Amino acid sequence: MELAQYIIINNSLGMDKGKAVAQGSHASVSVLDKVDKATVETWKQNGMKKIVLKVASTNELVELFQSAKDAGLPCALITDAGKTQIASGSKTAFACGPIDEEDAAKYFSELKLL
Amino acid sequence: MELAQYIIINNSLGMDKGKAVAQGSHASVSVLDKVDKATVETWKQNGMKKIVLKVASTNELVELFQSAKDAGLPCALITDAGKTQIASGSKTAFACGPIDEEDAAKYFSELKLL
Question: Is the ipTM of this complex over 0.90?
Answer without folding.
Answer: yes
